[in-house]
Amino acid sequence: MTTIQPADEPGRAQTRRWIARGAALALSVAALAGALAYLRDPPWLLHYTSGLRGWEIAADGTRVRSAGPHASLFVPADAREVRLRLRTTFEPPEDGPIVISIALDDVPAERVVLSGPGWREAAIRLPPAGTRRVRRLDLRADRARDGNRAFQLGEVTLDPAR
Amino acid sequence: MTAPDAAGARASGGRLSRLVIAGATAACLAGYILIYATGRAGPPIRSDGFSYYVYLPSWFLYHDPSLSAVARDCCGGTFPDYTAIIRWPGTRRWVNAHPIGVAVLQSPFFLAAHALTRWTNLSPDGFTLYYQHGAGLAGLAWTVLGLIVLRRLLRRHFTDRVTAATLATILLGTNLYHYATYDSSYSHAYSFCLIALFLYLSEQWHESPTVARSIGVGLVAGLIVLTRHTNALVLVCLPLYGVTGRSSLIARTGQLRRDWRRGAVAVVTAALVIAPQLAIYYQATGQPIVSAYGSLGFDLRHPHLLEVLFGVRKGLFFWSPVLLLACAGLVWLWRTGHPARGFIAGAAVFLTADAYLIASWWDWQFGGSFGHRGFTDALPLFAIGLAGFLTWSGRRRGTAALAAVAATMVICLSLVQMLQYWNGVLPFSDTTWEQYRAVFLKLR
């Protein structure tokens, strides 16, 4: 007579649980890796700024954005040069010039002294792109005036143009 | 809990209340996304939320606890008036009216946001995208943690159904949901969680005052004071736990005397947690204990109690009428000798003193807020009362149905009014009866 051995149900259930946990862990790691890969220089950075207010049309007809003492923006990493037009917020400057320090990915790149009401242009040469798709420009003023306004930024131009 | 109640609680295994926690988490996340995806609110680090948060970039990014470096980078050297960060007369150093507790509790989220900011190459200045939502989501996460702790506390004394209904009603029928989502960078979500945790640990400490529990109670007590100084009042709930009359008060005093070593462990732990705040005050003002609001303060002789509790401007029960049921529940728990009665003496002392203090503050409306945010911190105590009310009403089918209808109606009213606030239909403060009537139930 053949006897039927009871199936090892608890063992199988345990195995199934481990497989399910392993799959959930693998999926979580894959999702995290995918999210991190996407968040490395994501394309939306080119439209992201901080410390800059909305575009407005100045009295001379130019499009400008007002900034506090610190603003940041992004440019494509494959550009050779980026040109920024800057000026002080108020004229005449009542308390001496304002100094704007510009850094490219946290490395100092340029200093601009705004001593009059006119526009000053800063040209920043970009290093080879390497693995980066976008580069960050930080603009820091040495102080701000009333209403937390330090400077105005005009249109940003790139070379080669795009 | 009565015997049949306890049997019911065991039978249900807490599934319903767990489901409510999951639903609450999903609802909070959905509300948060709605608010920021539709531009209903500015960036999360704003208003009081800015002042609570500003320590983090100051400590971790600018390595300058004096707040001067962050003031230069964000604000041109001077913090705006709305921040309540003032230059202390005499020393000219920055003193922040909002203490460091929220920043301490936000720090894990801040560090994660900073790592992600570096990875994405956003500006690591403490105020770009990930820092903003790190701070916003921190408040949401602490609210959910508070609900989880509150569930565990309520489940010790009430059935799973009552616990589930209480959690849902406290979240949606008061301004807790608003402070978990729209104004999640304010201190209230954090204080809500800490007070729930303190009540839970207090009860356990009285059951068995081990060294580990003493350290836990002291740690949470310290964080409560560090998050909102006036919430130190809630600490009376520890010695008053289980006090139901003169004899139990004498017994409790005797027990505290016998267990003084464990009590001392809690006090020393709390003191160590609070010490950095005193050091910050000392560094800025030359004194360890100051009124960081400067000349603004309490007028204890002229409290606006009626307005604070019932007024149209920010009255607690006007904007969260479900809390009237919670008060009725607290009375019922006291009178029936329910096991949760142990909390009532502490709750009565704290809620009375807290209401008086809030009503005596120079700005008793607490500025812009949905409902009265001064009481959001105390919602775990109201939750115990509400669970008592639901237990009482559940004993008869008629009252159960009536309570369910009443609770549903006030939840709906609260949610509609919250949406009105989000949409700018209701003013941020100084609402008049005429304004309230004119926009009643209008979402636009």
Description:
The complex is a heterodimer of chains A (162) and B (444). Chain A is an alpha+beta fold and 162 residues long. Chain A contains one helix and nine strands. Chain A has one helix spanning 9-39, and strands at residues 50-57, 63-76, 81-88, 98-104, 107-114, 120-125, 134-141, 151-153, 157-159. In chain A, strands 1, 2, 3, 4, 5, 6, 7, 8 and 9 form a nine-stranded antiparallel sheet that branches. Chain A is elongated, with a radius of gyration of 27 Å. The relative contact order of chain A is 0.21. The mean pLDDT of chain A is 89. Chain B is mainly α and 444 residues long. Chain B is built from 20 helices and two strands. Chain B has a two-stranded antiparallel ribbon. In chain B, helix 2 (15-37) runs antiparallel to helix 7 (129-155), helix 7 (129-155) runs antiparallel to helix 8 and helix 11 (211-227) packs parallel to helix 13. Residues 1-11 of chain B have low confidence and may be disordered. Classes of the chains: A alpha+beta (162), B mainly alpha (444). At the A-B interface, strand 2 and strand 7 of A face helix 5 and helix 6 of B.
